[in-house]
Design a protein that fits this description.
Blueprint lengths: L2 H8 L3 E2 H8 L3 H9 L6 E3 L2 E6 L1 H15 L4 H9 L4 H31 L5 H11 L5 H17 L2 H5 L4 H6 L2 H12 L5 E9 L6 E8 L3 E9 L2 E10 L7
Antiparallel strand pairs: 1-3, 2-3, 4-5, 5-6, 6-7
Helix pairs in contact: 6-11
Length: 244
């Protein structure tokens, strides 16, 4: 037996029930995380129950902290694969939250600017009327939505602004959009793909584009007035989860 194996055998082991009590979690959660490969336990010939060393408990504590902050099991697994320490992971999550706050603040600012130019709501009514009376074919709007979504993702402002309404261009000058886009995309990591373009079930002139990134998904909402985009929003869309 090697010295390392001897030292391992000498480490105190904690039963799963004790670990759950220490960390305020459940045995079901620990089993799930172990099945997903983001925590480990130590097998012994003396017990069929899961047991944990102090180091493994620290690992569980880190995983629980990251899950409490909203990171998915998939993301945690990727961080472990890249050997990212807890501090770096927390800084990444902080950046994501700050970016989300900035995105919402920018969205609120844009909405406030739009409200100030619509004192009686007449223009909003007219835009709705135009989009519902003899609207372009849904397939045409779908194609325009895809073109504009790719323009957003690739930073092709010239292409995007060729499909925006004069009202939206006035509300959101190019410099403002480029700043919003840069701040929104900063924490997402590497771009993976444009996953889909979805038409709203209730409103035929509303489309959503969902783009997959390394750390988060990005949702692009486009509201059409006839064949021009009257409203445009960039929001974060959490990665799909099935964990407890």
């Amino acid at each position: 037996m090697t010295n390392d194996e001897t030292l391992k055998d000498q480490q105190p082991l904690y039963d799963i029930s004790k670990v759950c009590q220490m960390l305020g979690t459940t045995s079901r959660t620990l089993r799930f995380y172990q099945e997903k490969g983001i925590i480990q336990s130590t097998a012994t010939p003396f017990s069929s129950r899961r047991q944990y060393t102090a180091g493994q408990i620290d690992q569980i504590r880190n995983v629980l902290a990251l899950r409490a902050l909203g990171l998915s099991v998939k993301t945690i697994k990727e961080l472990q694969k890249e050997d990212t320490d807890l501090k770096t992971a927390l800084l990444l999550r902080k950046a994501q939250i700050i970016a989300a706050i900035h995105s919402k603040q920018n969205e609120i600012h844009t909405l406030n600017e739009a409200l100030r130019t619509l004192p009686d709501g007449q223009e909003a009514y007219d835009a709705h009327r135009i989009s519902t009376v003899n609207p372009p074919a849904r397939e045409d709007l779908h194609d325009i939505a895809r073109i504009c979504a790719m323009a957003v993702l690739q930073g092709e402002t010239e292409v995007l602004y060729g499909h925006l309404s004069p009202q939206l261009i006035a509300y959101m000058p190019r410099e403002a959009f480029e700043s919003i886009r840069r701040d929104t995309l900063a924490p997402l990591g590497a771009f993976i793909s444009l996953k889909e373009i979805v038409n709203d079930r209730e409103f035929p002139y509303v489309f959503y584009a969902l783009a997959a990134y390394e750390h988060l998904n990005l949702s692009i909402k486009m509201v059409f007035a006839h064949d021009l985009i009257e409203g445009l929003w960039l929001t974060y869309d959490p990665l799909e989860r099935s964990e407890p």
